[in-house]
Amino acid sequence: MNLEQIATMTLNNLQMLLDNLNLPLAVGPINDEDYQVLISGYSELEWEHGFSCYGNRGDKFEFCVKLLSGPLKNLPAGAALCTYDQTNSVLEIHFIESFVKDKLDHPLYGRMFLVTLWAAYLFGTAAGCDEVKINEPINEKVVQHYKKFGFEGDMNVLSAPFANITDVLKRYAINNK
């Protein structure tokens, strides 16, 4: 499979996972409408810069999470933009953002990073990933949160061997049955 096929398979499997967890969320690629929302000031991160650096690359992997129904179903609740370095077998998470971090009753609240890790696991398994990196986390609080999931590093870059991500997700699945 090529990277585009792996990305499609990943999003399909991620949707099945969300469905099995009874989370009323839809996951899919970032479309033109999502792009317009993300660069309009809706977000905290500089998505326009991210899209200009990574959006047209053949090795990109991106997705958006939305509600399945309701008045906000067309607005992104979360989004991630990654690339996969095939030469070094590294999945790099460049942008990850939850737009519902203040909405305690939203089904994505507190779960965007976990959803992204599941996506990284699914993508990385199919692609033969050896390592996951997170570039330039937004602040020290986020760095400490990511370290709870097995990442090491600092404000410049955090990284984790792919096997660590697999172990973290297995423990999560076992503890949340």
Could you characterize what this model shows?
It is a single chain. The chain is α+β, with helices and mostly antiparallel strands and 177 residues long. The chain has a single domain, classed as Aminopeptidase (3-Layer(aba) Sandwich). Helix content is 40%, strand content 23%. It contains six helices and seven strands; from the N terminus they run αβααβββαβαββα. Strands 1-2-3-4-5-7-6 form a seven-stranded mixed β-sheet, sandwiched between helices. The longest helix is centred in the N-terminal third of the chain and has 18 residues. The termini are far apart. The model has no long low-confidence stretch (mean pLDDT 93).
Low-confidence stretches: none
Q: Helix coverage percent of residues?
A: 40-55%
The topology string of helices and strands comes to: HEHHEEEHEHEEH
SS summary, helix count: 6
Count the E strands.
Answer: 7
Shape: globular
CATH topology: Aminopeptidase
Report the CATH architecture.
3-Layer(aba) Sandwich
- Mean pLDDT reading: 93
- How are strands sequenced across the largest beta sheet? 1-2-3-4-5-7-6
Strand content: 15-25%
Largest sheet: 7 strands, mixed
Query: Domains counted in the coordinates: how many?
Result: 1
Oligomer: single chain
